[in-house]
Design brief:
- The chain is α+β, with helices and mostly antiparallel strands.
- The chain has two domains: about 15-75; about 85-165, Glutaredoxin (3-Layer(aba) Sandwich).
- Helices cover about 45% and strands about 10% of the residues.
- It is built from seven helices and five strands, in the order ααααβααββββα.
- The chain has a five-stranded mixed β-sheet, covered by helices on one side.
- A hairpin with a 5-residue loop joins strand 2 (about 115-120) and strand 3 (about 125-130).
- The protein binds FE2/S2 (inorganic) cluster.
- FE2/S2 (inorganic) cluster binds near residues 94, 135 and 140.
């Protein structure tokens, strides 16, 4: 799936930027350092918006197209911030065969956010994830730390999502 950039404005702090510059200075000049720089930058910001990619490009001399190519290729890199409520649907095999796809569609329709994106108001984000290790509860989805398992019918998510919709 092609990764899309969010329309939610970037809100990095001066402290985060200071950490990022220190990170670049620490790794700059080391061959192959771009992966650890991107991983640690994501740990600082929680995701890798275009503004952060630009700072890394300026600091390392690695072109924006190369950096964008890396972050859009590897699934570990996230281009969008999480919403206040981060909704994740497990698409591992056990969940998939028990209808996780229909649950993902239902959730997307309810919160009006496509998979891999965050809503314009920042309230919800939606992601399809790999196995989260709760296969006995398949199909499973999460809202932040809240786990919803054995969601037998997609319509069941309507009631589960109510408290987050208010
Ligand atoms: S496949 Fe969904 S929790 Fe393992």
């Amino acid at each position: 799936m092609k990764k899309k950039m969010t329309t939610v404005p970037f809100q990095g702090t001066a402290e985060q930027e200071k950490q990022l510059h220190a990170l670049i200075a620490e790794h700059c000049g080391t061959p192959g350092a771009i992966m650890p720089i991107l991983q640690k930058a994501q740990a600082i910001y929680g995701y890798l918006p275009i503004e952060v990619q630009q700072i890394i490009s300026d600091g390392t001399g690695i072109s924006m197209s190369e950096i964008y190519g890396i972050v859009s290729f590897y699934s570990q890199f996230v281009l969008n911030p999480k919403g206040e409520y981060a909704v994740s649907v497990c698409m591992g095999t056990a969940c998939y065969v028990k209808g996780a796809g229909a649950i993902l569609d239902r959730l997307a329709a309810i919160i009006k956010v496509d998979p891999g994106e965050v809503g314009d108001d920042g309230k919800f984000s939606l992601d399809a994830t790999r196995c989260i290790g709760a296969c006995g509860l398949a199909p499973v989805f999460l809202v932040n730390e809240d786990v919803y398992g054995r969601v037998e019918k997609p319509e069941a998510v309507d009631g589960m999502m109510k408290k987050y919709m208010e």
